[in-house]
Design brief:
The chain is mainly β and about 750 residues long. It has a five-stranded mixed beta sheet with strand order 3-11-8-7-4, with no helix packed on it. The protein has a five-stranded mixed beta sheet with strand order 65-72-71-67-68, with no helix packed on it. The chain has a four-stranded mixed beta sheet with strand order 13-20-17-16, with no helix packed on it. Strand 45 and strand 46 form a beta hairpin.
């Protein structure tokens, strides 16, 4: 018998609809029965089959959004219904679909009542409260809410508005929707300002000073006062209250005002009496004054008065009845009325006479003298009879005590007497002393008077015409001289110009010829001749030896006329020079020869080197090391010179090299060292000394005839030694022997 096994039918479940929740800070999802749908095509007949309720899943993240992926583990899904036992789920491990929706979480923040004093801002110190909703688990408040007044101005029922709540939810706060609720319970009270007026003072009549004040505390920001203080009306001396006037602040302040006073003080009025005077017998002048300090239309009333009296003298001027009213403090500066003597002017008349005449009568005129009064006395003059001005003075004149005598003086002039002086013409030769200058005069001087001083002429000693002037000639201060001048003539002096003798050597150019002068005067010299004479001759540089005339001519000078004397030019012959040699002109290097010059009286030699002696004599001794030319300059008795040269050829044949073969170093100065003649002319030589065995005993480059028969300071034994003189690569080597003898051993 067999059993029939009926297997469960597999059905597929899909996610559908919308899985929705309000943001709660996690990814948990709760699905309803409408969100899990069994494939209806898989249900048999009228079977009733559904998914069990209460299935949970997860959103893809916790943040607000739509179309979010919802995942459900298949293990969390079970079938329900009458036919549930006949079915099983065919789905994979997890169901997913973009059917999720997370909506924002609502938060309500409400502003709180606040009261403050006006400070120019809209800030509120109260903290708004969350009055609806909460913050999801895991999230936190990052920035608390603040609140602000609707404006900064003082007032009541002001709107307070909350703002600025920030929640840290990992999504920039976008998982929340914050609603802010404003309240109209805010109060900003006016700020109290204490204003204190500053007391002021002015002097009557001056403008009011600026009415100032201080205040505390400081105003807010750029707020400032408007308007100004004012004071009680009045300009007379007294005290006037300073009130707040139009000074005000905006409605955000309340002013608490403390007043002060403006004090008007007395004005100083200085009244200065004017000093007055009158002349004796005149009526009083009006007594006047000046004032300083009077204001506007105010006026001084009353008048000055003076001490009574009409005699000559000084009378004080008093304030009298002067007044300026209640607003002034009067300072009175007094003065005087002076009664002066009456002025009488006496004016002397000017007088004159000629020197030697008698005085004229002294007269005058008078003005200002009253009828019935007279002038007493007479004028006088200063004593003296010489030419000049003599003041006429008051003398004994008088007009009495009631007058002041104003004397206007004059002068008596004594005029000079006229004298004519006629000059006699004079002259001289340039360089001579001046003759005495003479004159005649008319008319004759008065008895006892005479001329003093002397005539003079225009300065100058050059030839020409000069004016003879009056100079210091005078007849005295009492005479005027009418001067008749004449001329003073200076003639040219004669100057002898002599050509100076000269001499030259034959064949040389002509020299500059000079002259000697005779006849200069007054310290003159050649520099006094602007155009000097020149010297000519018929000789030239090619003329033969002999004598030639030097002829001067052509001189010109302001103070001289010229006479001339010739000179002589002598042309001297040159020396006839020759050179001879005692060894010809070809020698071996190191040999000495003599060159002998003749034909002159003095000699100077020059050459390429090797001169031993005689460089300034006729005979020159030389030891040349190379070929060259030697030149001598000979001078004869006339000082003329000529040159001659002599060429020497020097052979580099070593023929002058000669070594001694005997060495006797005993200190007698003979053969104490081994000597090689003329070795010094071959400085690159090398000398080597050997013994019979060929051993080197001595070696020296540039041998200088200094070997004395020793080796390293030790004396060699007597015997024969051998030498080699090497003159360099490719050159001759000389060989030989030297015998060493030590005498006395």
């Amino acid at each position: 018998m067999f059993d029939l096994v009926v297997n469960k039918k597999q059905v597929t479940v899909t996610l559908a609809g919308t899985v929705s929740k309000i943001y709660d800070g996690n990814t948990n999802a709760t699905l309803g029965v409408t969100n899990l749908i069994v494939d209806p095509n898989a249900i048999v007949g009228t079977d009733q089959l559904a998914v069990s309720s209460g299935i949970t899943g997860i959103f893809d993240d916790k943040n607000v959004g739509t179309g979010k992926t919802v995942s459900v583990a298949i293990a969390n899904v079970s079938l329900s219904g009458p036919a549930a036992a006949n079915y099983s789920l065919a789905n994979a491990a997890t169901l997913t679909a973009a059917i999720g929706e997370i909506t924002v979480r609502a938060i309500t923040v409400t502003a709180q009542t606040d009261t403050k004093v006006y400070d120019g801002t809209i800030t509120s110190s109260a903290i708004p409260l969350i009055t609806s909703g909460t913050i999801a688990a895991g999230d936190q408040l990052s920035t608390a809410a603040i609140q602000k007044f609707d404006n900064k101005d003082a007032g009541t029922s002001k709107v307070l508005t909350a703002t600025g709540l920030m929640i840290s939810d990992g999504n920039g706060g976008n998982n929340y929707q914050v609603a802010y609720v404003a309240v109209s319970t805010g109060v900003i009270t006016a700020k109290q300002i204490m204003v204190t007026a500053m007391g002021k003072t002015k002097v009557y009549g001056e403008s009011d000073p600026a009415l100032t004040y201080g205040f505390t505390p400081a105003l807010v920001g750029s707020d400032s006062f408007t308007g100004s203080l004012s004071r009680a009306q009045g300009e007379d001396v007294g005290h006037y209250p300073i009130n707040i006037g139009s000074l005000s602040l905006n409605g955000n302040y309340t002013i608490n005002y403390t007043g002060a006073d403006l004090t008007i003080t007395l004005r100083t009025l200085t009244i200065t009496a004017d000093a007055k005077q009158k002349t004796y017998g005149d009526a009083d002048p009006l007594l006047t004054y000046t004032s300083n300090g009077m204001m506007g239309l105010d006026a001084i009333t009353g008048s000055l008065s003076r001490v009574a009296g009409e005699d000559i003298g000084t009378y004080a001027i008093g304030r009298g009845s002067l007044t300026a009213g209640i607003n002034y403090a009067v300072v009175y500066v007094p003065a005087n009325l002076a009664i002066a003597p009456r002025m009488v002017t006496i004016t002397a008349d000017t007088k004159q006479k000629t020197y030697g005449d008698t005085d004229p009568a002294l007269t005058y005129s008078a003005t200002g003298l009253l009828a019935g009064d007279v002038v007493n006395g007479s004028l006088a003059r200063q004593t003296g009879e010489d030419v000049g001005t003599y003041p006429i003075n008051r003398g004994t004149l008088s007009v009495g005590r009631n007058y002041t005598l104003n004397y206007v003086g004059a002068n008596l002039a004594i005029n000079k007497k006229m004298i004519t002086v006629t000059v006699v013409a004079k002259g001289k030769v340039y360089g001579d002393a001046d003759p005495i200058l003479a004159y005649t005069s008319s008319p004759a001087l008065l008895a006892g008077d005479s001329f003093t001083g002397s005539l003079s002429r225009t300065l100058g000693e050059d030839a020409g015409s000069y004016q003879i002037g009056q100079g210091t000639l005078t007849a005295g201060s009492n005479y005027t001289v009418s001067y008749q001048p004449a001329s003073f003539t200076i003639e040219k002096a004669v100057l002898l110009a002599t050509a100076n003798n000269a001499q030259i050597c034959q064949g040389t150019g002509l020299p500059g010829f000079t002259l000697s002068y005779s006849g200069f005067r007054r310290g003159d010299g050649e520099n006094s001749i602007p155009i000097r004479p020149t010297v000519g001759t018929n000789a030239n540089s090619g003329s033969p030896a002999g004598s030639y005339a030097l002829v001067p001519s052509g001189g010109s000078a302001a103070n001289y006329s010229f006479s001339y004397a010739n000179g002589t030019l002598t042309i001297n012959a040159l020396p006839q020079l020759s050179i001879s040699s005692n060894r010809g002109n070809n020698i071996s290097r190191g040999e000495t020869l003599q060159l002998t010059a003749s034909g002159g009286t003095g000699y100077v030699w020059n050459g390429p080197g090797g001169i031993l002696s005689g460089q300034n004599s006729a005979v020159l001794t030389i030891r040349p090391t190379a070929s060259g030319t030697y030149t001598v300059k000979a001078t004869n008795a006339s000082g003329c010179s000529s040159e001659q040269s002599f060429a020497i050829s020097v052979r580099d044949d070593f023929q002058a090299i000669s070594a001694t073969n005997l060495l006797t170093p005993n200190g007698d100065g003979i053969n104490d060292v081994w000597k090689v003649d003329n070795i010094d002319v071959y400085p690159n030589n090398e000398v080597t000394i050997f013994d019979r065995a060929g051993r080197v005993l001595y070696r020296k480059k540039g041998y200088d005839n200094s070997w004395n028969g020793t080796v390293n300071g030790a004396a060699l034994a007597e015997g024969t030694y051998y030498y080699v003189i090497d003159f360099g690569s490719g050159k001759l080597k000389q060989k030989g022997f030297v015998t060493l003898i030590r005498e006395g051993r």
